[in-house]
């Protein structure tokens, strides 16, 4: 039985047990272990772009839309149950319903781990956790906890991975006047995307967090192997062309099971309760199948009572494409270029937005983002009908509205 | 006239200030073995960054219902306002880093819990800290 199936079965058993004993869960207010806790989060978000020949898309997160405004990039619902077995260990399960990169809306098991406290400040988790490559990766979908409608796609689009099935350790300690969190992890996971499949394997990484008062710093490095097996029509057409032009070896750089990747990130946050500054730089390096790129964002917000207007500037830059081919000028070369351009998300953007604390644990956010994908890129957009629709170099205005809750 | 109004307003503010900012104390049950806490330790617990003492004993947390005492407690201990604290705890809980404090429905329920669980800590206005509880830390 695969790890995924095992985790799914465990989740089903525990959720069934919880559902069968709702009276117990609702009335279990004793702080004594064993104690069960249920919590959840959700977002209802709508996105539209002023140019109606493209969709705003979070590559790896949702599938390009079918309706305008599109509810698929941000809308989701998550529920989490934790069973504290003893004061030293617990089991946590989290289920999430949202559209994934394969256009499926099946519930996903996003957390499923057993945690054991090993020593003061040190705990180990075994099972499924979130991939923590960047500063906000493991809370990517907990939109209530983030100031914006969604974390900037210029950085978070660099990491398509979600689940990490494996083991991690979290160690918290006070070092001088700093609070330190050391977070090593090891594992792998699958990524659903349209007409293909991908896996992250043997991912090993280390995150370091330092915080002091209003300031916190994140440093992260992770690396691993990955597979990316494409099955889309454009890939099939490109493969055919490469074979016919005697460049079949290039196909091994487009799709296969021998990829290596690494992720690095540096992030800072400063929040004194009035002003909020968040910035992050992140880099993805790959040897094939996906482009190497880096991105950054800088966000500044100011609270006025329950309302916080903010401004975000962000940039993603292509460092290196993942394959090269020499095709005769004309239709074949254009198809090859389209294939590469459609896999490049480089762009820059300026976002103006506001967050309104509607009530405790409910926030409304509205954003307008002006984006310019690079000339050789689709950025965070996809053509609605015609794949030949030019996207690179255009200026696109995207409006987002969301309601986030946490309970 | 405006000057006089300002003086009156200042005097009024000073008069009501002690009432608004009652001292809050962190407490355990009267028979709890828990030692006094430092400000740093208490902050680590209520930010979900630690749940054990240096000797390895586990500390579990209780919260009061949402309201001015709770807001004042977190502001004084962690220097975070209510929306910052809610965002912080959402991140801690939904990334699986920490289990949230158990929220008591009332001061009476908190007292009941403190009496029955020696490793539980909570907070209350200093004026409510009677012989049934042991004060572990007085917030400034």
- CATH fold annotation of chain B: D-Maltodextrin-Binding Protein, domain 2
In percent, how helical is the residue content of chain A? 10-25%
Question: Mean pLDDT of chain A, rounded to whole units?
Answer: 89
Report the span from N to C terminus of chain A. Answer: 34 Å
Main sheet of chain B: which strands, in order across? 3-2-4-1-5
Share of residues in strands of chain B: 15-25%
Strand order of the largest sheet of chain A: 1-3-4-5-6-7-8-9-10-11-12-13-14-15-16-18
For this structure, what is the CATH class of chain A?
Mainly Beta
Uncertain segments of chain B of ≥5 residues (pLDDT<50)? 8-19
Structural domain tally of chain B: 1
User: What structural class results from the helix and strand content of chain A?
Assistant: mainly beta
Radius of gyration of chain A: 22 Å
Spell out the CATH superfamily of chain B.
Answer: Periplasmic binding protein-like II
Write the layout of secondary structure elements.
The complex is a heterodimer of chains A (407) and B (140).
Chain A: H1 3-20, H2 22-27, E1 35-49, E2 54-56, E3 76-86, E4 89-98, E5 108-119, E6 122-130, H3 153-156, E7 163-175, E8 178-193, E9 196-212, E10 215-230, H4 233-244, H5 251-254, E11 256-271, E12 275-286, E13 292-302, E14 307-320, H6 331-341, E15 347-359, E16 362-373, E17 381-383, E18 396-406
Antiparallel strand pairs in A: 1-3, 1-18, 2-17, 3-4, 4-5, 5-6, 6-7, 7-8, 8-9, 9-10, 10-11, 11-12, 12-13, 13-14, 14-15, 15-16, 16-18
Helix pairs in contact in A: 4-6
Chain B: H1 2-20, E1 24-29, H2 39-46, E2 60-63, H3 68-78, H4 82-94, E3 102-103, H5 107-116, E4 120-125, E5 133-138
Parallel strand pairs in B: 2-3, 2-4
Antiparallel strand pairs in B: 1-4, 1-5
